[in-house]
Design a protein that fits this description.
With 306 residues, this protein is an alpha+beta fold. Helices cover 32% and strands 25% of the residues. It has helices at residues 15-23, 36-44, 53-56, 58-76, 86-97, 106-112, 114-127, 130-137, 145-159; strands at residues 170-171, 180-181, 187-194, 199-205, 210-213, 216-223, 226-231, 236-244, 249-255, 264-269, 272-278, 287-290, 295-299.
Length: 306
């Protein structure tokens, strides 16, 4: 139901890609300081995948993920972050009409009020908050791979700086007679502008009307944006934010600035999504995503980066 992530901590690209980028991050990055618990997980992510965190740091994963789920529960009880599902509505009613400890801390209220605890348990189960549900049942908390991935998302969200969306940046894309395109013309790099702490890449997306491959058929395709940004020196860059502007142009805010000496950026597409027309294992009318590996290569005007 999505209520367990009301704060928008999901990264702009898959967390595994963000973790890979952090390991090979270009010089000059300004990551934010994090809590001691998140720092432990960040250190573990240098050598282990997100899913492996549950095995390497089980107690820390439980503390971090459970705390996030409790915060989500607290927000959901206000009614402002509901998803429209019955469990969310019942939770709000239980919170509003609960009796004892009404103004106390949430854990104390849950222990003291069986009705509120039951509504919170239903909400957690419906929203995928497995650790919170187990806590409310009073059973031992054992993290799994999905908890590890969620912990990694929380680490990444805490580390990433805010996207630099202000004006005052400089165009560094080397002018050409035609814009940089992929092999089929679906994607076109329009601009690469560098600011004080990062750069912005504008890509015009013109996906095909439909996509057919073996048993998969999609229509009304939508481009997911860039999934990976690297340079010719072997560095990677964080995609902090993606923002379609309604005209077919998708803006990507990346961090940090291009590394000194980098002359080429390689931009890898994250694929397309669309309405599902035919797929052997799913019913028509749903949506699906297809990974289309398209890489755009743009040359930078290095003299403008000084």
């Amino acid at each position: 139901m999505g209520s367990t992530d009301p704060g928008g901590t999901r990264p702009a690209v898959p967390v595994a890609d963000m973790v890979r980028a952090l390991r090979r991050l270009a010089p000059g990055a300004a990551l934010r300081p994090v809590s001691p618990q998140l720092a432990v997980l960040a250190s573990a992510l240098r050598h282990h995948s997100p899913a492996e965190l549950a095995l390497r740091c089980p107690s820390t994963v439980v503390q971090v993920v459970l705390a996030a789920q409790v915060r989500a529960l607290d927000r959901a009880m206000t009614g402002w972050f509901g998803s429209g599902v019955p469990e969310a509505a019942r939770l709000v009613r239980a919170a509003r009409f609960s009796g004892r400890c009404r103004t106390g801390a949430l854990p104390a209220r849950l222990r003291a009020e069986p009705g509120l605890r039951a509504a919170a348990l239903d909400w957690a189960e419906a929203g995928g908050g497995r650790l919170l549900a187990d806590e409310l049942r009073g059973v031992p908390l054992v993290p799994d791979g999905e908890d590890g991935r969620r912990a990694a998302e929380l680490v990444v969200a805490a580390l990433l700086p805010r996207a630099e969306v202000g004006a005052g940046d400089r165009e560094v894309l080397v002018p050409r007679i035609t814009a940089v395109r992929d092999g089929t013309g679906f994607l076109e790099v329009r601009s690469v502008r560098v600011g004080e702490r990062g750069f912005r890449v504008d890509v015009r997306a013109d996906p095909p009307v439909d996509f057919v491959r073996e048993s998969l058929a999609l229509r009304a395709l939508w481009w997911n944006g860039l999934g990976r940004v690297t340079d010719d020196l072997g560095h990677e860059y964080l995609v902090l934010r993606k923002d379609p502007d309604g005209t077919g142009i998708v803006r990507h805010w990346c961090h940090p600035r291009p590394a000194p000496g980098a002359r080429v950026l390689r931009l890898e597409s994250a694929g397309y999504r669309g309405e599902l027309l035919r797929l052997d294992t799913a019913a028509p009318g749903t949506s699906a995503e297809v990974l289309v590996k398209r890489e755009l290569t743009v040359r930078l005007g290095c003299e403008r980066l000084e």
